[in-house]
Design a protein that fits this description.
The chain has 148 residues and is mainly beta. It is built from no helices and 13 strands.
Length: 148
């Protein structure tokens, strides 16, 4: 799988092992774990055993923010990391981002300088249900997160 931000310069973001020759249709799936906000361009590069290859048609996917006044978390569920898109009202202020487990215990805390997004590294945390809390001044935003 290849990804591009402009539809011209592509980079590989993942590989799926093929099943070889087959007389029946085989379906493959791939999830981009960190798409960019806005237009994303994707294409497949199919490589034969002899090294010959061809590209699929380019498709576009628009990951647009529905409500810039809300907290967004993706991918969700996840296993390695979560990107947190902050509401516009917080992008020019220092924020405190915390992660709480299902029992309400704080398992991660980060103080962030003004920004529009935060990446949380989650490796090593047990699978389960969590909440991401973002606070700045008297504003608090909470979103659920599932770690697989």
């Amino acid at each position: 799988m290849e990804h591009s931000l402009n539809g011209h310069n592509f980079e590989m973001i993942g590989k799926i092992q093929g099943s070889g020759n087959s007389q029946s249709t085989i379906e493959y799936t791939f999830i981009d774990e960190s798409p960019n906000i806005g237009l994303n361009y994707y294409r497949l590069k199919q490589v034969d055993f002899d090294g010959q290859f061809e590209y699929s048609k380019v498709i576009t996917v628009n990951f647009d923010r529905k409500n810039s006044d809300d907290l967004e978390v993706f991918p969700n569920p996840t296993s390695a990391f979560a990107d947190v898109l902050l509401p516009e009202s917080l992008t020019d202020r220092e924020t405190v981002v915390t992660l709480h487990d299902f029992a309400g215990r704080e398992v991660l805390r980060r103080k962030e300088q003004p920004s529009n997004s935060v990446r949380l590294e989650l490796e090593g945390l047990p699978a389960g249900y969590y909440t991401i809390n973002v606070r700045s001044g008297n504003e608090t935003f909470i979103k659920p997160l599932v770690i697989q």
